[in-house]
Amino acid sequence: MSTTGASADPPPSSRTGSGAGDPLATLGTLPGVPEAVESVRKAVDRVYGHRIMRRRSNEITSEAALRGSRGSAALAGADWALEEVRRRTDFSGDDEARRVGAALRLTAEAGQLLSIWRQSPLRVLARLHLVAAADGREEVGRPRQAGEPVEEPLIELPLPDPDEVAGRLEGLSRLVVAGSAAPALVTAAVVHGELLALRPFVSHNGQVARAAERIVLIGSGLDPKAVCPAEVGHAELGRAAYVAALEGYVSGTPEGMAAWIAHCGRAVELGARESTAVCEALQRGAA
Asked: What's the CA gap between 28 and 3, in Å, rounded?
């Protein structure tokens, strides 16, 4: 999925013409990907099978949302302690506070956009950027135009030009609307990776990409109660591993794509583990 040369394979979002079949399903067969999918399924089943989930699932969902927001903000450069995120009510101060506020707003908004996503993913992405930026600048809520700078503190890969961005966003939208036989993890990873590779907005691209991944995981039915926050896992795995895995995605090679999907799978597993720990704490009466 290279933005730097013609030797790499084209991105999945560009392979949507007649005869292209189901490119996401093809990615699901790459070496290591079926094992990652199965590992994620088992991790999700463990948390959903916990006895606390039968009685207090709303509490687990709320806590997972908070922890997921903290994780996404950490990857955006605002690595606050969980209790600080829990305690604060004003997120309008410095840049770090605004990033945490954006993550909290995006997590809350994601659950309201599930029904729209499958019909109009581009509309959802525009809404997510509006929610994240929370200001009235004219460039908010639309793809960036030629000459507009991009503020993205973590991703330093070459930026595709606006025409390429528009074409690949349209291709990604067609993939989502058409649906796929691919496992939810594969679709979520491709949506996440494509948005990070494109950085279609002038700001908050990483946070929007992680919110879109959340929407796919919830809306697909893999994590309908939103208790397996992948953002927690992405933060726990670390920024360096996140960027390295993304470089594999951008390379477009089968090995790179499989490594990115597996990385996203591990993040979901760690999110599920986090919520399992919350369940255990509630069961002990310690939280």
From this structure: 23
203 — phi, psi (to 5°)?
-160, 165
Domains of the chain with bracketed CATH: 12-284 (1.10.3290.10)
Q: Give the whole-angstrom CA distance, residue 121 versus residue 224.
A: 18
Q: Has residue 3 got a pLDDT over 60? A: no
- The C-alpha angle 178, 184, 187, rounded to 5 degrees, equals 55
Q: Which residues pair with 151 in a beta bridge?
A: 203
Q: For residue 56, give Cα distances in angstroms to 91, 164, 274.
A: 29, 46, 16
Per-residue pLDDT tens digits for 190-206? 999 999 999 999 999 99
CA distance 152 to 74: 13
Burial of residue 83, with CB atoms counted within 10 A of its CB: 0-12 exposed, 13-18 middle, 19 or more buried: exposed
Residue 242 DSSP SS3: helix
Query: What pTM, to 2 d.p., does this model score?
Result: 0.91
287 contacts 58 by C-beta, under 8 angstroms: no
116: alpha, beta or left? (left if phi > 0; alpha if psi -120 to 50) = alpha
The dihedral through the CA atoms of 98, 246, 141, 149 has a sign that is positive
Residue 38: its pLDDT value, please? 98
Q: How far does CA 18 lie from the centroid of its chain?
A: 28
142 phi, psi to nearest 5 deg = -140, 155
Which residues does 14 contact at the CB level (< 8 Å), separation at least 6? Answer: 167, 168, 171
The pLDDT tens digits for 118-159 are 999 999 999 999 999 988 677 899 999 999 999 987 888 999
Strand partners, 203: 151
Tokens for 162, please give them.
């606006």
To the nearest whole percent, how much of the chain has pLDDT over 70? Answer: 92
